[in-house]
Sequence to fold (1070 residues):
Amino acid sequence: MTTKKAVSKKNKKQSDHAPKITAHDLAKGQREISVSEFFTKNRHLLGFDNPRKALLTTIKEGMDNSLDACEEAKILPDIKINIEQVNNAEGRFRVTIEDNGPGILKSQMPRIFGKLLYGSKFHRLKMSRGQQGIGISAAGMYGQLTTGKPVLITSKISPKKPAHHYSLVIDTQRNEPKIIKDVEVKWDTKHGTKVVIELEAKYQKGRQSVDDYIEQTAIANPHADIIYINPEGEKIRYSKTSKELPVEPKEIKPHPYGIELGILIKMLHDTKAKKLQSFLMKDFSRVSAKVAKEICKKANLYEKARPTRIAAQEADALYKAIKLTKIMNPPTDCISPIGDELIIHGLKKQINADFFVSNTRAPTVYRGNPFLVEVGLAYGGDLPEEGLIRLLRFANRVPLQYQQSACVITESVINTTWRNYGLQQSSGALPTGPVILMVHLASVWVPFTSESKESIAPYPEIEKEIKLALQECGRHLSKFIKRKKKAAEEIKKKSYIKKYIPHIGIALKEILNLNDKQERKIVNTLTDILERSRS
Amino acid sequence: MTTKKAVSKKNKKQSDHAPKITAHDLAKGQREISVSEFFTKNRHLLGFDNPRKALLTTIKEGMDNSLDACEEAKILPDIKINIEQVNNAEGRFRVTIEDNGPGILKSQMPRIFGKLLYGSKFHRLKMSRGQQGIGISAAGMYGQLTTGKPVLITSKISPKKPAHHYSLVIDTQRNEPKIIKDVEVKWDTKHGTKVVIELEAKYQKGRQSVDDYIEQTAIANPHADIIYINPEGEKIRYSKTSKELPVEPKEIKPHPYGIELGILIKMLHDTKAKKLQSFLMKDFSRVSAKVAKEICKKANLYEKARPTRIAAQEADALYKAIKLTKIMNPPTDCISPIGDELIIHGLKKQINADFFVSNTRAPTVYRGNPFLVEVGLAYGGDLPEEGLIRLLRFANRVPLQYQQSACVITESVINTTWRNYGLQQSSGALPTGPVILMVHLASVWVPFTSESKESIAPYPEIEKEIKLALQECGRHLSKFIKRKKKAAEEIKKKSYIKKYIPHIGIALKEILNLNDKQERKIVNTLTDILERSRS
Fold:
């Protein structure tokens, strides 16, 4: 009781004065947190939860960058990945990722690899693997955190110029690169980039492994040549199955329906357009002169008003007017599907199955962002009869390995009634059977549930498209399974009848008093009729 | 085929020259991404997925800050929360959170509310609700994004000084506050802070609601007085049940076992200590002179070496030596439990049940971070007999509302065999029965699975502690349930015997030829014996 009293007494005292521990005391601790410090402490948010996952994430970020760079420069990607165990150091690996891409300017190299939240992909609306400007620098930062070693980068932008080499670490307190070595080097290649990261890691085969990841990347990127040397020194090569680059996705302007009020206010403020009407036409996609006029009218705003002078109140009216105006869906050439044919090629190359089918949906829109869904399915053959089907998830051609149960793709597969298509399925579970199912979401902005980009958030528009694509493949699968069953029954019937034909021959021979030749003829004719009738 | 040929030809050409689209072209798009831009585009990572959750997250971030500030200044918190629907605006709400805390210095106000990754809690090892320096600015940023309205902050640091008012927005491109209004105001309070945020939101009762959240906060913070006015104008008050402030957690130095090599290198570089031995003793917790010497010896390093001159190679040896040296567990006064008694007080206040039990474990360590687990359980009474038990999860006294299935607390409850303790349970599910179960994890660094702080990552050390606490409560519950069952059986037996006593009386009367008085006496005596023997 004494303590209680003491406290209340103190409280009373406090209410007459400033508190004993004042705002001044608390202010002393306040300071800025750099984004590198933040993600060092929260490295699990970026996919560096544990040594095994850290290895996968590092490979993934490196390959994403290589593939993106090659495609942007219209080069068919040749990528080499090498994972070596560091001598005498249990649990330490050296990862090398090398590409034949366009290379990186010397001036850009330090910040691309040594600064978090730096890149070219965040601010535009165009499909690419990277979107955050965090990945590869985070991998370097993790390496530095666990081994103290810098990231080594070599890049060459033209056969006529020498390559440039940097060795750098991140100054996490400032989130800026600190250069340790900066030299010109000879590198016998036309152009490309090579990154070496040493990190604490664990190599283990099986599901969610680096091996798995690289194989799946090859399926979704048939235009890439991938050479992979694992820590056991085995060399695995995935050759191109296509010599065509994917259609280049175009960068688009935001669609008015996807915009939030705060962003609209910012755009009004930042625009170079002099008039409201031209602002709407130039800074957004799908706004014609007519549509722009209609929006202004509905907002009760003068179409020649200066955008920078639109007050908050008026921006709100404009925002509401946009929602009330019919505007065409955004253009969809900002995304580039793998395509039915190449999906099947990709699957066929890695999997020996009896039946393949794929379906690419037309692009559509969620929250103003264009996206499309593709599905590929392989059935039978070497695939195991027992157990759940194997689901391969992809986002912008990148395989997703973790957090399967939190992903809209998994949810959509579970919520499809596979019994209608000839597969067994318990409620709330994936179907069972000899099936590999591949689902690809391509979008200018994939709504990942975390920075580690492991699963996709459940937007209803996305779930709907996935289900439609699955159902289409399901119908084809169902026909194949039915045909296969029917064929199996035919063979069974045929073998029954075939067994009796010689007996019929003998019976007829006795009844009609035929010779051996005539008997043989009858048997042959009957067999022939059977073959023709049933096949 | 023509296209394919064309591409290969082009490829060949490319290999002699720099690619057509060069590194120079790609470099043009490269730029810095501010952390505000990043989280605006990824607002779901911070808990602003949808309007209902946005309302909860805003309240939560505001209350976290208020409670933390009061406790640091040793003030019993009085908090007022008001949610109003904005006139004539469907789906827009004005949230006000007011406290009697120490207030905030004028110079600090803009950045605390208008800059992401700014705060006093990230860089220290001490239990608090906030840890990232993102929350309240993110809430303001979401308000600004969805309504275009600034955040309004009023703060007063002493009864002798006027209050200061700021109205501000975040310049997302620079991640810096932009001040719109900056005035002194009269505020009739001794000291405290008031924040007003207008945002697009949805108010809905039930599970995961703001109402639920505030009620649970009251349970875990019995020393706080909370007044809550909901959008329907109802005023709900949760009074203090304790007049004692929680024991103040102490700030600690990092423990050598929890440190990563990269951090060790950075600490060696940044330290003010002149000698390796004193560096180990001063910059870490639990390193005595003897232990420091032992580490140096094992690392083959001179104990008087200058820390800033330790090379990477030597740091590695130091790192390994630390792992090989026996060091005491970190001190645990950096965390402050709610305590058995107050947990039960808190539960009793909100819930009418027959049985209450709680268990507070001794502090222990994961990855160098001290933590402790507390469990409270209420059984029977008004709680529903049917259905799964209700699980309340808390981290540093903050209720967790979303992502229940991804949380180590849920996992631990599911993996406990509740049948041993008298409850029904299907495999892989929560038990069923009239139970509310509260689990609290308190730590200097809670390993959340995302920035929105909704669930805790499954560290084995944490799971183990939770299970031990649950088992302890389970044993008490089991005794209570057995006693209750036994008591019910006794009552049943007693009522059987009671029924026969008058008949015995009649029989004895006849056999022994007794009068009515004697008969009554026998019946009373027998009844009395029964009462005494069974109760």
In short: Chain A touches chain B through 95 residues (CB under 8 Å).
